[in-house]
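Incident log entry.

Two folding requests arrived from the same account within the same minute. Monitoring flagged them as a possible duplicate submission, but the sequences differ. Recording both here for audit purposes.

Request one:
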Amino acid sequence: MSDLSEPRLVQPTTALRESYLAGERADCLAEGRSTEWLAPAVEDFDAFVAERSGVFVRWDVPCTTFWYVVGQDYLGTLMIRHRLTPELTNVGGHVGYHIVAPWRRRGHATRMLSAGLPECRRLGLDQVLLTCTRDNEASRRVILANGGVPDRPYGDEDRFWITLGEGPGTGEGRR
């Protein structure tokens, strides 16, 4: 049995309704963004979760979403895109992630990405591309801490490759 006090990746679940909504609202408020996008979740959280569970299509590619949680607290989201389009090769990459504002600056993003890399490997990916805007130093540190190797930039985006090893844990960079 796993220790529920340790952060872990889980499939989206209705059991985290209040924590998810509170975290995402706080995130929007901290960044000065509208919370309107949360309306479907507030109205029908079961349907909202169902749309994000398992494999679904977004950006014209299959995607898998995980929530990063500790106990019953939602900390953030990690999304794995199963393949790249030309657009995702430049901006977006295979993996997107965020930690909601109340849980930032505690190392959660680094650990969440590390936990997500074996999931990428299970999906058959040998290496993954991650991108971040040039001014996002926090994301850059997360990617580098997980073995990201810089590649050519694209516009305002920096791009990094992580080569996935055979076993669990982080990648070792692109060769």
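Request two (distinct sequence, not a duplicate):
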Amino acid sequence: MYKVYGSVTSRAFRVLWLLEELGEPYEFIKAGPRSDAVTALNPSGKIPVLQVGDDIIPDSTAIMTYLADKHGKFTYPAGSVARAQQDALTHAVLDELDAVLWTAARHGFILPEEQRVPAVKPSLMWEFARNLDRLADRMVGPFLQGEQMTIADIIATHCLNWAIGAKFPVENEKLSDYAKSMRARDAFKRVRALDGD
């Protein structure tokens, strides 16, 4: 059985959501970043961490790629053009949404106070809005890549939810509607319910 270390309010949400979509059994071990349980598995202390038997996989995107490839769902076949396009979308979401939100978080509360530059937030908000519009222009169907949901959709939706919590406006109507439909998925709701356990 898979073991997922992390918290629902972190990028572990992405991994848990994919596991719920896949219908694969897992054990969720609630653990914060740099906790003893996490640091014992991942010296950086970052979450999420996936334990598969004696093997450890850190990083939400690496974990999701492994799970999608292993189970042959929520991904296109390796070596296909569609997979390369999926990977391009995934990296675009990570570079243009996730990284912007992470930078804002670092300067908002993660870095030591003397290292924070709060004045960067308006610039990051502008960049985020511009990048949302670019992503919306790339959407070709009900999901980012058309008719098939992939791990890129899970990462994008997680970022859109993160943006709301971080008070980054999501004013692109196409992506706002897309996020609402993704949040309506049963697997998404099951993971969100884990936060109350």
